[in-house]
Design goal:
- This is Tripartite motif containing 9.
- InterPro entries: B30.2/SPRY, B30.2/SPRY_sf, Bbox_C, ConA-like_dom_sf, COS_domain, E3_ligase_FN3/SPRY, FN3_dom, FN3_sf.
- It is found in: Cytoplasm, Cytoskeleton.
- The strands form eleven sheets. Strands 27, 28, 30, 35, 36, 37, 38 and 40 form an eight-stranded antiparallel β-sheet that branches. The chain has a six-stranded antiparallel β-sheet with strand order 29-39-31-32-33-34, with no helix packed on it.
- Helix 7 packs parallel to helix 10.
- It has 748 residues and is α+β, with helices and mostly antiparallel strands.
- A hairpin with a 4-residue loop joins strand 27 and strand 28.
- The chain contains ten helices and 40 strands.
Amino acid sequence: MDEMEEELKCPVCGSFFREPIILPCSHNICLACARNILVQTPDAESPQSSRASGSGVSDYDYLDLDKMSLYSEADSGYGSYGGFVSAPTTPCQKSPNGVRVFPPAVPQPPPQHHLLGHPGSLPPIPRNSCLTCPQCHRSLILDERGLRGFAKNRVLEGVVDRYQQSKTAALKCQLCEKSPKEATVMCEQCDVFYCDPCRLRCHPPRGPLAKHRLVPPAQGRISRRTSPRKISTCTEHELENLSMYCVQCKMPVCYQCLEEGKHGTHEVKALGAMWKLHKGQLSQALNILSDRATEAKEFLVQLRNMVQHIQPTDGPGRPLIVTSGWGTLKENGVEFEACLVAQCDALIDALNRRKAQLLTRVNKEHEHKLKVVRDQISHCTVKLRQTTGLMEYCLEVIKENDPSGFLQISDALIRRVHVTEGQWGKGTLTPRMTSDFDLTLDSGPLLQTIHQLDFIQMKVPSAPMLQLEECCTINNSATLSWKQPPLSTIAVDGYILELDDGNGGQFREVYVGTETICTVDGLHYNSTYMSRVKAFNASGVGQYSKTLAMQTSETGQSPCDMQTLATVAWFTFDPTSAHPDIILSNDNLTVTCNSYDDRVVMGNSGFSRGVHYWEITVDRYDNHPDPAFGVARVDVLKDVMLGKDDKAWAMYVDNNRSWFMHNNSHTNRTDGGVSEEATVGVLLDFTRGILIFLINDEQQGPVAFEGIEGLYYPAVSLNRNVQVTLHTGLPIPDFYTPGEADLSGSVC
């Protein structure tokens, strides 16, 4: 509760709020303080269009009002309307809370015809009065209602009362004239606390008072809090109760306000429903902020531990080697200095001058670390105190059972909670300084080079951290991402990525370089690969990261209930490896060419295990070209027909017949060609090491190639007279069953 006290104090007087009013900027101020800081402005400075009151200023009005602000962060501390006699230049003051406010302006004598209000009402406000918020420094021009145009913050007033009551050790009698005695009872009907003498004197148990119910003081305090809420009335129509809520204006309204059409085009909802909705929103925001506060408390414990590690303590010197790691420090400040002195004293006298310089450097580093951590502790402590105070204040506000009063401040509180929660965002709870002294003294130089003595780094890098959110597998490719641990200051020259064989075998290096992300292609389907990474520098190789298991695409059962699993893979044409004349479209599934010569394009996924089947439909076929379909190695020639070199195994086809071709050798001419809308199928079976082609769902010739082994990519060659579209993720044809004795014949 103590942290909440600052939330309950006026920014002007520094005392607890008394009759607080809500400014359009959502800040609060005592009614008396608001009158004290009023400034009268000349007529020329207050157009009617810019007048503001508690219900008539939108967020956009502040763009104009800020131009009239008497104070800003860049101000020199003085606010005035220079050049006007009616508003002399006066220095601003500072409240007990540290907020700069303006002194009371000398009010102009009221007009003689002004009618005084009822007793107890506010004195008349001079025309064209201006009020500047002491917290955000936004200027508000009051309308004819003056300060009565600002809504009273009854919820805040109730929270202040409850807070002050909770600070009172014992409830005092309300009728004792001099020193109040401790109350012994409370009358629920009179709503008065009595001590025994005052009760006998002022509340005798006879007559009409005999029917009053007397309860213990503690129970009376509770009954006061749980008493039926007062029905709030409209500030413009004092006889009307507030029953609705205008969503656009964000304020409670009465029935007469709606009848007058002031909110005719606005969305209006029931007051009770909006009360419950905003309470829920504030509670939800508080839950998030509470988590941030818990993290901040844990973070402060870590920072204080860092101070204990960095703070010099008595102890013997040890070898000048400091290991890195959060919360692990083998040598603190004094040990570091003592070891440095011991090594320097062992050298000849010429080393003493350099020794002093090195000690100065260590001291500066030590003081710098302490200063950074202590500053962060101080900053985080203040922010946590403010956060805790806001949370306690909001919890007290939620207990309030006055819907209209709650809704007057709920939006501002919700925004404040969100803003405060955002201040605990990413990076706020991260130490700005490590507690390690990552310095190693090299005492090996010769005496003639002793003036060059300096600290050098002789540590291997820490184990990298795998970024699991960025690691993934697609088909038979795996992408891994990693980074150095936070606060690590050790230089890294590069990284080594290792994978096993997907079957629990030995690890092998698959990447060495400076990048922190790597994609490995050509892995086996339906396999689990173990991966790890380590960093290296001139001092050596660091520890391995944690081992990550990565599963490549799973397999699917064939339609014929076969025992061998067929891999269902989705892939597209690869624009990065295609010949420059190749034209891709339809998300890299459709391909053609802008050259009359044959050009090669491959798929973006390679195969080395399992049974795979894909199809290619002919979208356009002009002038009887000879497109080729098949598989190829990654280094196949891209500017000749597929199969011309020894890196591709293909079937090329015209409109009447087809041939198989590998290493420019043509075999097995077969009748039957392609035309527009024809379908060419490619079946690659690594279990038997064979490649089969189909045209329009029928096998084209015998088995095209045998002894298929290794890594192959789907491939096509074509020219500008052909356009084809790739179809993947297909099951193998019904006629084909891996393991058949003979497939040299035709279709099953």
